[in-house]
Amino acid sequence: MQRRSLLGAASAAALARPARASSPALVLVELFTSQGCSSCPSADASFARLVGRADVLPLAYHVTYWDRLGWRDTLGDPAFTERQRWYADLLGRGLYTPQLVIGGELDLVGSDPRLEQALELVAGQRRPVPLDLDGAGIALPALPLANAARLLGIGFEPLRRVSIGAGENAGATIDYHNAVRALVDLGAWDGTRQQIALPSGLTIYPDLAVLAQDPSTGRVVALGRRTVPAARPGALL
Asked: Which residues have C-beta within 8 Å of that of residue 234, sequence separation ≥ 6?
């Protein structure tokens, strides 16, 4: 499958669900990054500017294939690398860092200045249905779906400061924002109205996201988040 360009995505406007003007679009932005990648700190800094925006849900996944250079990413997980591999197959771009995936359908280099353009494009064309998260569960609305969606639960950490001791960024101390710490497959959803419980592996995280994604296209069809009022600095690792 070929990479979706910004112009190519614009041609899909006829497929878009009409947006409601009463509330802003919530766009999923996924950054694939690594503490061992010298090109990533500038993308991490750009990504940090998305945190706190009401129209964006930014999540950062730390991949593990840079660990071979001598520094094991303290926020890395093989599951995050596998998620990026899934996008690599879907978008036809291969693995690279830093990579941004917008709305599950567009990808950009993490420091690409066209990020705002991509956000506006996806917000105007691919508006996910909002999901409500409470303390223990997720309220799924009735939603007509062409394909059963995959539900993912994500626990993330608002802020973690890391002192890097080796690899390409040796000696640097970097603040990482909205780093994913848990990625849990919650099963398939056929679009029927229902309430599902959060597994115990997610309820330990104050900051949570749940998304429903079309596995054939990557499109995010539903999205919700629960965050604490303010970011809390993490320990120095």
From this structure: 157, 159, 160, 161
Q: What is the 3-state secondary structure (H, E, C) of 6-69?
A: HHHHHCCHHHCCCCCCCCCCCEEEEEEECCCCCCHHHHHHHHHCCCCCCCEEEEEEECCCCHHH
Q: What span, in angstroms and rounded, lies between the C-alpha atoms of 65 and 28?
A: 24
Q: What 3-state class would DSSP assign to 94? A: coil
The dihedrals phi and psi of 68, each to the nearest 5 degrees, come to -65, -15
Rounded Cα distance, 205 and 237, in Å: 19
> Which stretches within the chain are classed as H helix?
6-10, 40-48, 78-91, 115-125, 200-203
Question: What are the structure tokens assigned to 121, written together?
Answer: 């494009």
User: What are the backbone angles phi and psi of residue 125, rounded to the nearest 5°?
Assistant: -115, -30
Kindly report, residue by residue over 29-50, the tens digit of the pLDDT.
999 999 999 999 999 999 999 9
pTM over 0.85: yes
Each residue of 126-180: pLDDT tens digit? 789 999 887 678 999 999 998 899 999 999 999 999 999 999 999 999 999 999 9
DSSP annotation of 236: P
The backbone torsions φ and ψ at residue 198, rounded to the nearest 5 degrees and listed phi first, read: -80, 135
Q: How distant, in Å, are the alpha carbons of 67, 162, 184, 226 from that of 209?
A: 27, 23, 11, 6
Instruction: Pick the closest to residue 5 from 98, 121, 96 (CA basis).
Output: 121
Phi-psi region of 120 (alpha: psi -120 to 50; beta: other; left: phi over 0): alpha
